[in-house]
Amino acid sequence: MHFYGTSRVNGQGHLEIGGVDTVDLAAKYGTPLYVYDVALIRQRARAFKETFEQLGVHFQVAYASKAFSTIAMLQLAKEEGLSLDVVSGGELYTALAAEFPVDKIHFHGNNKSKEELEFALAANIGCIVVDNFYELDMLENLCKEKNQVMQILLRVTPGIEAHTHDYILTGQEDSKFGFDLQNGQAEAALKRALQSEYLHLLGLHCHIGSQIFETTGFILAAQKIVEKLSKWNKELEFSPSVLNLGGGFGVRYTHEDEPLSPAKYVEEIVKEVKVQAAKYELPMPEIWIEPGRSLVGEAGTTLYSIGSSKEVPNVRKYLAVNGGMSDNIRPALYDAKYEAVLANRPLAEIEETVSIAGKCCESGDMLIWDLPLPKSNDQDLLAVFCTGAYGYSMANNYNRIPRPPVVFVENGEAILVVKRETYEDLLRNDLRLSVGIGQEN
């Protein structure tokens, strides 16, 4: 059994997170319920920042809010002195509602709309990460119309493949993201950006993938990018003030995962950029990174109530919970794996192996296959660990199931930060037909 952050078994024999009994949380807020260990989020944020500070380099640690975006989470990121990476108008709107410092907001995305770019310009955010020529032209035209200068990074694909799931590879040459570093696209984009009166090019950005357990990919990406920067420095007299090497730092979902510490990722990245900058006699750029999952993933636990069970003789036993792919689609989408315990008796003797089924009307709605558990019944609570990233943010209303609430726990206190959706919420945007389609009044 592996506990994350402040999680432990308390005197009542229950799972406790942030000093709060999860049985009490389930009784007060119901299930399914997302529970976030705030102390663990703070610890991870500080580990990234403190390592940069110890290494004596200029930096920004930008929380990749796509992992988990709520007003309360962005307030927490602001408290910890992080910057912010948003990828949509909705995420930017949430950031502004959280009163996040606009100069520390970076806007990503491969197909930003005109309206989203206008929104970003009106908010006067700190930086836009330009992904393609279409966006480059549109942004320049909008800035010209508004007589406004915007700071940008150019996203490049360095041709590095991270050792991760095929669905979340982004740094290789065949990618929907960014300007290719090898075929001349990146250089053409750089020249156009440098010629613009309205775009201030800070530097380059890359992101090589997600759930990465080693530093080799980041080192190779830094080598390729700085080598190209050396060429552009000589030919175009361009020296970047910023090099953003993205995120993708891995977390532990199961015993098979062995992620590095935040400090190790930062140390290796900074070391390599320093080596490459010295090699090519370039000024040391400010280093930006974008942790998302690695800040919030392990801090999240989802509580479920156990319901029906079904035993297929000599095959398996299914145990159903009152959630599933509507609150955690990752197992169905990515074949993601999780570990879990009974929150109300985590130390009980293991007696059987079960598979945890969700309640959605899909045979693929399975949360965990072959999970060792004590004998369980509908009086038990299941706690699924490491659901803090891409659980709530990818939650949906399939089968018209309301999304669960979110609770932050810290120092023995629980705070509701997202209310449970109601059936009324599901109908909020539905409109009735006044007459039948095709019928006259």
UniProtKB/TrEMBL annotation:
- Enzyme Commission numbers on file: 4.1.1.20
Per its record, what are the GO molecular function terms? diaminopimelate decarboxylase activity; pyridoxal phosphate binding
Name any Gene Ontology BP term: lysine biosynthetic process via diaminopimelate
Record note on quaternary structure: Homodimer.
Q: Where does substrate bind?
A: 293, 330, 334, 362, 390
Catalytic reaction list = meso-2,6-diaminopimelate + H(+) = L-lysine + CO2
- What positions does the domain Orn/DAP/Arg decarboxylase 2 C-terminal occupy? 33-388
List of residues that carry N6-(pyridoxal phosphate)lysine? 66
Give the required cofactors. Answer: pyridoxal 5'-phosphate
Q: Where is the active site?
A: 361
- Protein name per the record: Diaminopimelate decarboxylase
Residue ranges of domain Orn/DAP/Arg decarboxylase 2 N-terminal in the record: 40-296
**Pathway(s) it belongs to:** Amino-acid biosynthesis; L-lysine biosynthesis via DAP pathway; L-lysine from DL-2,6-diaminopimelate: step 1/1
Which residues hold pyridoxal 5'-phosphate? Answer: 248, 290-293, 390
Role according to the record: Specifically catalyzes the decarboxylation of meso-diaminopimelate (meso-DAP) to L-lysine.
Recorded hits in Pfam families, A to Z, give:
Orn_Arg_deC_N (PF02784), Orn_DAP_Arg_deC (PF00278)
Q: Which gene encodes it?
A: lysA
Its family? Belongs to the Orn/Lys/Arg decarboxylase class-II family. LysA subfamily.
Keywords attached to this Swiss-Prot or TrEMBL record, sorted alphabetically, are: Amino-acid biosynthesis, Decarboxylase, Lyase, Lysine biosynthesis, Pyridoxal phosphate
Q: Which PANTHER family match?
A: DIAMINOPIMELATE DECARBOXYLASE, GROUP IV DECARBOXYLASE
